[in-house]
């Protein structure tokens, strides 16, 4: 999990990056169910859910370069 500043609206968001597995459809379905449950939660003690998306990457170096620190904020 890390925090990032949106380049357009300038708000700070918490980002949770989850890697899907090419050969483990059961685990991928569990992850998708988690996203669905989180998207339906409305509680003052739970961070508000905004959006989920999937990005496909084939280059292992590119994937490893996405590991951000827990407090990285894009100030651009």
Task: Give a quick set of tags describing it.
single chain, two-stranded antiparallel sheet, 76 residues, 2 strands, disordered C terminus, alpha+beta
Helix/strand order: EEHH
Main β-sheet, in a few words?
2 strands, antiparallel
- Between the first and last Cα atoms, what is the distance in angstroms? 20 Å
Tell me the β content: 5-15%
Number of strand segments: 2
**Structural class label:** alpha+beta
Cα radius of gyration in angstroms: 14 Å
Mean pLDDT: 77
Widest β-sheet, arrangement of strands = 1-2
- Shape designation: flat
What's the quick description here?
By secondary structure, the chain is an alpha+beta fold.
What does this structure look like?
There is one protein chain. With 76 residues, the chain is of the alpha+beta class. The protein has one domain. Helices cover 28% and strands 11% of the residues. The chain contains 2 helices and 2 strands; from the N terminus they run ββαα. The protein has helices spanning 25-40, 60-64; strands at residues 2-5, 12-15. It has a two-stranded antiparallel sheet with strand order 1-2. The radius of gyration is 14 Å and the shape is flat.
Topology:
Layout: E1 2-5, E2 12-15, H1 25-40, H2 60-64
Antiparallel strand pairs: 1-2
């Amino acid at each position: 999990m890390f925090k990032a500043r949106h380049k357009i609206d300038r708000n700070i968001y918490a980002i949770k990056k989850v890697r899907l597995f090419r050969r483990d459809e059961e685990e991928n379905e569990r992850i998708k169910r988690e996203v669905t449950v989180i998207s339906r939660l409305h509680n003052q003690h739970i961070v508000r859910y905004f959006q989920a998306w999937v990005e496909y990457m084939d280059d292992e170096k590119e994937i490893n370069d996405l590991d951000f620190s827990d407090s990285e904020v894009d100030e651009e």
